[in-house]
Amino acid sequence: MNRMDTIYFPILFLEQWRFYPGDPVKHWETGFSAKSLSHCWFQAQGFPRSVRDAFEKAGNPLAGCEPLLIFPEHKAELPGGNACSQNDLWILARHSNDLLSIAVEGKVGERFGNESVKEWFRNASQQKYDRFAYLTNILEVTISKDSDLHYQLIHRTASAIIEVDRFMAQHAVMLVHSFSPSDAWFDDYRAFVKLWGIEAEKNAIHSRQMKSGKHLYFGWIHGEEEFLKV
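^ thats the sequence. predicted structure below, dont judge the formating
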């Protein structure tokens, strides 16, 4: 890890956020996920209402958990190359004596990344095969390299587990926070969580226990649509 990656500065005003995703113009448009997500979470100064409501319905350890640290565009390191899994948000949260690693993927109309697994494997190097083996191992699932599942969902979920281990937490959470009025791409999320035998619902949290004893949670949260207009 680059030592500078361990040094963080707090966001004192919202306009600072726009420089984290990459291009501060291209990635900061009204009606798109980066801007909607940032305004929603910055205004909440914690969990937004839609997220907290779903957590309360889920029961412990999500009910009543509180964010300790919230990092925009947090990078989780992956083996096999220099690319990281860059979370739109990553949260270290606490419930009683338990710590939670929460990876958040913001969505409006954008698809989950640019590639399915099948597309990602075209002309694949050995590094890609090694990385994919690592990801499926950490997720405790089998995924064909010809799969139409979105690669982004795979490494985003893995990033929550990676940070569980790094921070000695007990629970990993992968949330899709969608501001799309039609919940665009929900069917792709639903196909993904079926790997764990989960029948996805909107505004609901589902969990599975890992072999390690840790718990993995999934959620699709329909966000506050007023943030599409900011």
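The radius of gyration is 17 Å.
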